[in-house]
């Protein structure tokens, strides 16, 4: 399961925004802490540094505790990792070997530091953006308290990954700081790690940090609660107090609250945030545009710029891969030129060889119709970016079949729903798509990105 499947399931079951930190005391103490809290928390955190100082035994203890936590509850490794040169290997260790669901990182090396962790699209990366350490203000508030560095960091991180990939972590925090972070990052999950600064001002913290749905915060259980005679009752009381504050906050809102451009109140859909990002970076624009087919549409979808945005390109490749994993094929074939980068990414991701039919055959050299190594009789899956008339996809498939290859499946990112899949079926192909035009239109409308007229212009093209 992904981080979000576990997290949303745990919140639904426990009705709690609390998490428990499992510091390495005695293993029996930690096991007891898990049993006391597993039905009262929505996550656990493990402080890597606290385990590391115990040496090899500490790492073994970390792995043992990790295995003791119910698989339905997400586990966040509080590593605050910062080594750029080894981040790829460390991300592999955390997410593949230790099977953690989330990890905290220090972001001051920029996207290059965070990117290896974002490659694991089913996990969540927490970027540390603020600490309450007194001397930290020398850097965090530079150059001025009105335009501090930590808020610039939060703003920059918005382009590194979607809310499903990247969250924020804050140490000792005042309500006004949290409010500024929430204003810049309305859709991000925020992990608060310093209990001493939270619970004396819990009402103010919740007012400042809860998102539009009344959640979006991960709050630590104060360690002193575990020293009480009845810790479970104390934790349950704390949870109930937080939920009362949440309910009051939600009830105090206007019943006719409007959609705003940077906040999405949609029910969760697999590619909601990806659609919004594609619009925000200019892949979807409006105005009369002549298509390759010669038709004039009142909008234009241009996916070529995604190759310059690794985090979005990664999401798109992952979306294609989810479909390809259900199909049987020997090789991947990209249709020139738009789908070639995606086909290359899929070949690397799925470890399948790639070929491609040439758009035009050279009149010199080998004069190949299909580039790459293949054997007649092999089955090929065709990758295309957008399905409007289906002509380029079927022409490419015909070239592949002319050299003895078998083609059954054509996978595209966006289907314009103009009956093209039916045309493909008539020609003996099965069409698959990540997104449909109507799904894009509906998401953009409900997300406040487009007007009613623009929505109608998109929907009219389905006919």
UniProtKB/TrEMBL annotation:
Metabolic or biological pathway: Pyrimidine metabolism; UMP biosynthesis via de novo pathway; UMP from orotate: step 1/2
Record-listed E.C. numbers: 2.4.2.10
Chain residues that bind 5-phospho-alpha-D-ribose 1-diphosphate: 358-359, 362, 384-392
Cofactor(s), names only, from the UniProt record: Mg(2+)
Single GO MF annotation: orotate phosphoribosyltransferase activity
CDD domains named among the record's database cross-references: PRTases_typeI (cd06223)
Keyword presence, Zinc-finger: no
KW Nucleotide-binding (keyword) present: no
HAMAP family xref list: PyrE
NCBIfam families: pyrE
Subunit and partners: Homodimer.
Family, per entry: Belongs to the purine/pyrimidine phosphoribosyltransferase family. PyrE subfamily.
Functional description taken from the UniProt entry: Catalyzes the transfer of a ribosyl phosphate group from 5-phosphoribose 1-diphosphate to orotate, leading to the formation of orotidine monophosphate (OMP).
Annotated protein name in UniProt: Orotate phosphoribosyltransferase
């Amino acid at each position: 399961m992904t981080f979000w499947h576990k997290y949303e399931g745990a919140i639904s079951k426990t009705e709690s925004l609390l998490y428990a930190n499992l510091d390495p005391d005695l293993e029996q103490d930690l096991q007891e802490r898990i049993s006391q809290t597993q039905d009262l928390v929505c996550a656990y955190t493990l402080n890597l540094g606290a385990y590391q100082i115990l040496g090899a035994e500490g790492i073994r203890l970390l792995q043992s505790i990790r295995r003791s936590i119910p698989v339905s509850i997400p586990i966040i490794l509080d590593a605050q990792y910062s080594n750029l040169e080894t981040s790829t290997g460390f991300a592999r260790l955390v997410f593949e070997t230790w099977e953690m669901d989330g990890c905290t990182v220090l972001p001051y090396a920029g996207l290059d530091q965070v990117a290896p962790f974002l490659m694991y699209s089913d996990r969540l990366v927490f970027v540390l953006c603020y600490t309450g350490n007194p001397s930290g203000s020398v850097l965090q508030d530079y150059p001025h308290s009105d335009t501090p560095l930590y808020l610039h960091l939060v703003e920059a991180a918005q382009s590194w990954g979607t809310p499903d990939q990247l969250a924020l972590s804050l140490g000792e925090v005042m309500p006004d700081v949290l409010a500024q972070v929430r204003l810049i990052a309305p859709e991000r999950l925020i992990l608060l790690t310093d209990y001493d600064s939270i619970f004396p001002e819990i009402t103010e913290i919740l007012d400042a940090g809860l998102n539009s749905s009344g959640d979006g915060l991960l709050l630590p259980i104060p360690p002193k609660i575990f020293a009480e005679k009845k810790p479970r009752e104390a934790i349950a009381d704390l949870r109930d107090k937080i939920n009362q504050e949440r309910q009051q906050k939600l009830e105090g809102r206007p019943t006719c609250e409007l959609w705003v451009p940077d906040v999405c109140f949609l029910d969760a859909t697999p590619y909601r945030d990806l659609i919004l990002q594609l619009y925000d970076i200019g892949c979807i624009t409006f105005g009369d545009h002549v298509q390759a087919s010669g038709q004039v549409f009142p909008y234009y979808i241009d996916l070529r710029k995604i190759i310059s945005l690794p985090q979005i390109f990664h999401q798109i490749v992952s979306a294609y891969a989810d479909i390809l994993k259900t199909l049987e094929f020997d090789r991947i074939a990209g249709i020139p030129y738009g789908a070639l980068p995606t086909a290359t990414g899929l070949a690397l991701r799925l470890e399948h060889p790639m070929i491609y039919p040439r758009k035009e055959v050279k009149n010199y050299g080998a004069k190949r119709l299909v580039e790459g190594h293949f054997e007649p009789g092999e089955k090929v899956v065709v990758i295309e970016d957008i399905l409007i008339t289906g002509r380029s996809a079927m022409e490419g498939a015909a070239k592949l079949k002319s050299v003895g290859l078998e083609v059954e499946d054509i996978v595209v990112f966006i289907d314009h729903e103009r009956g093209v899949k039916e045309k493909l079926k008539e020609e003996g192909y099965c069409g698959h798509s990540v997104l449909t035009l109507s799904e894009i239109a509906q998401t953009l409308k409900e997300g406040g990105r487009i007007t009613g007229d623009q929505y109608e212009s998109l929907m009219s093209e389905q006919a």
